[in-house]
Design brief:
The complex is a heterodimer of chains A (108) and B (110). Chain A has 108 residues and is mainly beta. In chain A, the strands form two sheets. In chain A, strands 2, 4, 5, 9, 10 and 11 form a six-stranded mixed beta sheet that branches. Chain A has a five-stranded antiparallel beta sheet with strand order 1-3-8-7-6, with no helix packed on it. Chain A contains no helices and eleven strands. Chain B has 110 residues and is mainly β. In chain B, strands 2, 4, 5, 6, 9, 10 and 11 form a seven-stranded mixed beta sheet that branches. In chain B, strands 1-3-8-7 form a four-stranded antiparallel beta sheet, with no helix packed on it. Chain B is globular. The chains are: A mainly beta (108), B mainly beta (110). Chains A and B meet through strand 5 and strand 10 of A and strand 4, strand 5 and strand 10 of B.
Amino acid sequence: RKEVEQDPGPFNVPEGATVAFNCTYSNSASQSFFWYRQDCRKEPKLLMSVYSSGNEDGRFTAQLNRASQYISLLIRDSKLSDSATYLCVVSRSGKSTFGDGTTLTVKP
Amino acid sequence: DAGVIQSPRHEVTEMGQEVTLRCKPISGHDYLFWYRQTMMRGLELLIYFNNNVPIDDSGMPEDRFSAKMPNASFSTLKIQPSEPRDSAVYFCASGGSEQFFGPGTRLTVL
């Protein structure tokens, strides 16, 4: 079993839709959690950190459930520019493990 | 800050040749990471350093791979001898729990 698992998708949604990505992790000692975004043929870029209390950044909301070892990312009012691969990342003692990513395509 | 700098951006070489990838991390970052990304295996951590000291190299695939960090502003990843299966994008990142990636080196071994 992989340490970090994501639904690979692809998710194809129309502009304006709400879409949710899920991620599970196996190591209960994990300390920090993130979502990264990677555009085609580019490097991953930090999108947002994830906290147990949940956090929101504009149209993006991230949530962490430590008991279930589950992380989510919600994107509201999808834009064409949101099309990318979203990577779930789990970190412990300085070492990060990346999920394989979920691909999102937002269509006009 | 210019961000993480990697060179070369593209490298095409023949099997058996030595390949050296270079990275300049963001100034002030204590951690430096080397990753490899392929379609088949995704993004894999190869090795990471803390304050120039290698902490975990368990992801280095085999003895053909080596990495050094002689000072806080420079690191290298060397493959000797290279093989076609080493073809991938190699990323360097710096930071801590939040990581900032360089643009990557796209390596093709023929």
